[in-house]
């Protein structure tokens, strides 16, 4: 049985900030860029309440996502990892976005993931599960995620984490033991092999 790697969805597979910027600017005639997204609290970026920002994200991501291209290098890297690992998407997206999310994954990553786990958002009150708990349940040997918080939580329980990307929202002066940054998918793929192959 292959060991399991948990892979985050947004900004690791799906270019969320760029797509939110594009859709928001088109719909609301704004001039945001991806560099404006320095926090996961989108209400702080958009000047809205948390509830309003969640509703806005759901509305923007409930539209057709099929033509949105994956993060550069993701498809090739996932196919490469599949030779030695079982791959599971573990996303903080709410289950309300399950249909468009699964459709997008089926279009761009058909047959490459054994499961998609919607861990949810702790602020919505709808079946939230910490990624640390999800990864333990999956008996994952690694998490690839763009969130410093998720990375630190999982590393604290002994799970190796690849912190993906060099984004405005995941900057930090230091990373705890067990967390290694990869700025691109080729880097992430190379990091997995020597660290996690037993």
Describe this structure in words.
The chain has 198 residues and is α/β, with parallel strands linked by helices. It has two domains: 139 residues, 3-Layer(aba) Sandwich (Rossmann fold), CATH 3.40.50.1000; 46 residues. The protein contains eight helices and six strands. Strand 4, helix 7 and strand 5 form a beta-alpha-beta unit. The two termini are 13 Å apart. The model has no long low-confidence stretch (mean pLDDT 90).
Question: Any chance you could write out the topology, listing elements then pairs?
Answer:
Layout lengths: L3 E4 L8 H13 L13 H5 L3 H12 L12 H8 L4 E6 L6 H11 L6 E4 L12 H8 L1 E6 L2 H9 L4 E4 L14 E4 L2 H12 L2
Parallel strand pairs: 1-2, 1-4, 2-3, 4-5, 5-6
Helix pairs in contact: 4-8
Question: Can you give me a brief rundown of this structure?
Answer:
This protein has 8 helices and 6 strands, in the order E-H-H-H-H-E-H-E-H-E-H-E-E-H.
CATH superfamily heading of the largest domain:
HAD superfamily/HAD-like
Beta content comes to 5-15%
Low-confidence stretches: none
CATH fold field value of the largest domain = Rossmann fold
**What top-tier CATH class of the largest domain fits best?**
Alpha Beta
Tell me the structural class: alpha/beta
What would you report as the Rg, rounded to the nearest angstrom? 16 Å
| Basic shape | globular
Main beta sheet strand tally, sense and closure:
6 strands, parallel
Query: How many domains?
Result: 2
What sequence of helices (H) and strands (E) makes up the elements? EHHHHEHEHEHEEH
For the secondary structure, the number of strands is 6
C-alpha termini separation = 13 Å
Spatially, the strands of the biggest sheet line up as 3-2-1-4-5-6
Helical coverage, percent range:
25-40%
């Amino acid at each position: 049985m292959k060991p399991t790697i948990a892979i985050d969805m947004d900004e690791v597979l799906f270019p969320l900030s760029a797509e939110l910027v594009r859709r928001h600017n088109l719909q609301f005639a704004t001039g945001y860029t991806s560099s404006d997204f320095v926090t996961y609290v989108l209400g702080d970026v958009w000047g809205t309440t948390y509830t309003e920002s969640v509703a806005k994200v759901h509305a923007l991501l409930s539209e057709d996502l099929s033509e949105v291209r994956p993060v550069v290098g993701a498809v090739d890297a996932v196919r490469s990892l599949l030779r030695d690992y079982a791959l599971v998407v573990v996303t903080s997206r709410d289950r309300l976005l399950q249909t468009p999310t699964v459709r997008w994954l089926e279009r761009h990553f058909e047959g490459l993931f054994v499961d998609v786990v919607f861990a949810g958002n702790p602020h919505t009150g709808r079946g939230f599960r910490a990624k640390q708990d999800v990864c333990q349940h999956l008996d994952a040997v690694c998490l690839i995620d763009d969130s410093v918080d998720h990375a630190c939580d999982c590393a604290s329980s002994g799970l190796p984490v690849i912190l993906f990307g060099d984004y405005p929202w995941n900057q930090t002066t230091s990373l705890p033991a067990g967390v290694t940054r990869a700025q691109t998918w080729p880097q992430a793929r190379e990091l997995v092999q020597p660290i996690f192959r037993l």
